[in-house]
Design goal:
- With 625 residues, the chain is mainly β.
- 12% of the residues lie in helices and 41% in strands.
- The protein has a 5-stranded mixed sheet with strand order 8-9-10-15-14, with helices on one face.
- The longest helix is centred in the N-terminal third of the chain and has 24 residues.
- The chain is globular.
- The chain starts with a helix and ends with a strand.
- The protein binds (dicuprio-$l^{3}-sulfanyl)-sulfanyl-copper (RUQ) and dinuclear copper ion.
- (dicuprio-$l^{3}-sulfanyl)-sulfanyl-copper binds next to strand 27.
Length: 625
């Protein structure tokens, strides 16, 4: 047995034990007393840390961090290094603060789902680097959303997409944002709606790997194609880049195809897989008419169309798979191991050419592990996810060890480790998943925060920790606390983004927009009432809207301001209506005036000294007879 093989065996035994210990509550720290200083760092270190994270009043951060909000359905925006929370972008959930999910347009986008589970933000890329145009985020409910970074707003939600169930391995984009990728975490019989008994899981349930096509100009997403797979639980993904551009990688757990208590049944084999998909070849096959329509989308069965998908054996129950900045290495972390495996893209190609296979899974060839791996790096227990620096270093989060390991690409040496408080999941380094990582900062996205802040009762926030990676030794700089659930985040140089401050009037193409209070008023067609409303300091015009009970009322609101920060809201009491318009923006809200009475509406966003006076009345006259 090779030295690495032996190390692997030992580590895996240790890891299994450590997982049990961790589950038994090792991670729960005891609470410090209020006001107690418990930093282990010396006071000079603290002074340096304070200086490195202090952004003086009026100064700006160097990076934006876009963090997943998990099942809050939101994306949170932070400034780095200050770790200040700058903004919340609602995506899959109504958000009264910005009126999201209340006006007709955003309500239609949400459909009948009022929650989503955001895991993995993916900034659009050009040549493998962030281009500052869009941010794509997944939802477990089979959807992908596009946020426009020009105004930090959600512009499109695509899905639920057919066949994919539990869209976890998403929303990873390819190096020129050709596709946003998705994958089934929970295999089901496809198409959706088909039923098969659970004891037929191994044969009748299917996973899918999904490509969502992105229009290069508008960012508009559309159905692409899918690949049918055995019922593995697809987990995380990353697109190849540079030498490996054109390939996509996804990890899976449960290659056992087990059901029931997965913590036992799905951890029987020593190895699970990473799927390597030649997506440029799939694109070609689909263009040639290959594949079958299932659930309204083109699905390729790798058994019928060989040469597109291969399986790389990877340490048991892997989580993250991360491609190095040069695209040469694919790093897969088996979360029940003490090592992370580095696969060599060249060797993968050679093994494919030489048919160096050890078997297959439903017709998908399994490559020989020894032929494609370059190293098993002994990073520590419970490796999850890896990010990269500009200088050939890699950083791997260790859930069980609750630490980050820094290691050198090429020599595969672990050179430093820093503890995290507590139990890190993902991590994000500045542009650390692109072709040009920026170094400097890394944020550990931790699962627990207990004892690191004033207690807020049983529902604790998560903690994120800022780490300085500019020197040989990593140094902890700052603790911040976040809403659930920081699965993944990306950090981009602030200067890459160019957000607007107002919507230019000439760009407003809404046919119901009006720009003069003289045009405001109420018109009627049968029992449909249209109220065109102008919002400008400090009046909502008209100041009264009269309708009859039973009317369908459409209110079209235009904020005619062209001044930064001059938002106005339209809160209508008793009717559950709450719309906010940014300067230059028009939104509509449609409702049935089913309750008679007098209902005040008012501006919800403080806008001037006479903001309080910005109010009016909806008068709903009782239906006669
Ligand atoms: S995942 S940590 Cu989507 Cu790693 Cu949650
Ligand atoms: Cu407009 Cu307050």
């Amino acid at each position: 047995m090779s030295r690495q093989g032996k190390t692997w065996m030992t580590w895996s035994a240790v890891a299994a034990f450590a997982v049990l210990v961790a589950l038994a509550g090792r991670c729960a720290p005891s609470a410090p007393k209020a006001g107690a200083k418990k930093s282990a760092a010396g006071s000079s270190d603290l002074a340096v840390a304070a200086q490195k994270t202090y952004i003086a009043p009026g100064d700006l951060d160097e990076f934006y961090m876009f963090a997943s909000g998990g099942h809050s359905g939101n994306v949170y925006v932070f400034g780095i290094p200050s770790m200040r929370h700058l903004s919340t972008i609602p995506v899959y959930t109504p958000y009264p603060a910005t009126g999201y999910g209340f006006d007709d347009e955003s309500k239609a986008m949400l459909g009948n789902l009022t929650w989503g589970d955001v895991h993995h933000p993916s900034l659009s890329e050009t040549n493998g680097d962030y281009d500052g145009r869009w941010l794509f985020v997944n939802d477990m409910n089979g959807r992908v959303a596009r946020i426009d970074l020009r105004d930090f707003k959600t512009k499109q939600i695509l899905g639920p997409i057919p066949n994919v169930s539990g869209n976890h391995g998403s929303a990873f984009v390819t190096p020129n944002t050709e596709y946003s990728m998705m994958a089934s975490r929970f295999s089901i019989p496809i198409p959706k709606g088909t039923v098969a008994p659970i004891d037929k899981y191994a044969t009748d349930y299917k996973g899918v790997l999904v490509a969502v096509k992105i229009d290069p100009k508008s960012g508009e997403m559309a159905l692409g194609w899918q690949i049918m797979t055995p019922p593995f639980n697809w987990d995380l993904g990353d697109a190849g880049k540079k030498v490996s551009d054109g390939w996509m990688f996804w990890t899976c757990y449960n290659s056992e195809r087990a059901t029931g208590k997965l913590e036992v049944t799905s951890t029987q084999r020593d190895r699970d897989y990473i799927a390597a998909v030649d997506w440029k070849a799939v694109e070609k096959a689909v263009a040639e008419g290959k594949g079958d329509m299932i659930g309204g989308v083109k699905v390729i069965d790798p058994k019928k169309v060989p040469g597109l998908v291969y399986l790389l054996p990877c340490g048991k129950s892997p989580h993250g798979v991360d491609v190095s900045p040069d695209g040469k290495y694919i790093v897969g972390s088996g979360k029940l191991q003490g090592v992370t495996t580095v696969f060599n893209f060249e060797k993968i190609q050679t093994a494919i050419r030489n048919k160096d296979f050890t078997g297959d899974e439903d017709g998908i060839p399994v490559l020989k592990y020894e032929s494609i791996k370059d190293a098993e790096v002994p990073v520590g227990l419970g490796p999850l996810h890896t990010q990269f620096g500009p200088d050939g270093y890699a950083y791997t989060s260790l859930f069980v060890d609750s630490a980050i390991a820094k290691w050198k690409m090429g020599t595969w040496e672990v050179v430093d480790k820093i503890p995290m408080s507590y139990s890190i999941g993902h991590l994000t380094a500045a542009e650390g998943d692109t072709c040009s990582p920026k170094g400097k900062y890394l944020v550990g996205l931790n699962k627990l925060s207990h004892g690191r802040h004033l207690s807020v009762g049983p529902s604790q926030p998560e903690s994120s920790q800022l780490v300085d990676i500019s020197e040989e030794k990593m140094k902890l700089l700052y603790d911040a606390f976040t809403e659930p659930e920081p699965h993944y985040a990306q950090m981009v140089l602030a200067k890459t983004l160019h957000p607007i401050e107002v919507y230019p009037k000439e760009e407003n193409k809404n046919p119901l927009a009006i720009w003069d209070v003289k045009d405001a008023g109420v018109t009627r067609k049968g029992n449909e009432v249209l109220a065109k409303v102008v919002l400008v300091r400090s009046t909502i015009t008209p100041t009264a809207i009269e309708v009859e009970q039973g009317d369908t009322v459409k209110v079209a609101l235009t904020n005619i301001e062209q001044t930064t920060d001059e938002l106005h809201g339209f809160g209508l009491l008793d009717y559950n209506i709450n719309v906010v318009c940014d300067p230059g923006e028009t939104k509509t809200v449609t409702f049935k005036a089913d309750k008679a009475g007098v209902f005040p509406y008012y501006c919800t966003n403080f806008c001037s000294a006479l903001h309080q006076e910005m109010q009016g009345y909806l008068i709903v006259k009782p239906r006669k007879g």
